[in-house]
Amino acid sequence: MSETTEAATAAERNTSADEAGKAVFSVRNLWKVFGPKAERIPHDESVTGLSQAELREKTGCTAAVRDVSFDVRKGEVFVVMGLSGSGKSTLVRCLTRLIEPTAGTLEFNGDDVIGMDKDRLRELRRHRASMVFQNFGLLPHRTVVDNVAYGLEIQGVGRAERRARAAEMVTKVGLDGLGERRPGQLSGGQQQRVGLARALAVDPEVLLFDEPFSALDPLIRRDMQEEVIRLHSEEGRTMVFITHDLNEALRLGDRIALMRDGQVVQLGTPEEIVANPADEYVRDFVRDVPREQVISVRRAMRPCKKGEADTGAALEPDTLVVDAVEAVARSGEHCRVVENGRTLGVVDNARLLNVVAGLTGEEDGGEQKAVAAV
Question: What are the entry keywords (predicted)?
Answer without folding.
Answer: ATP-binding, CBS domain, Nucleotide-binding, Transport
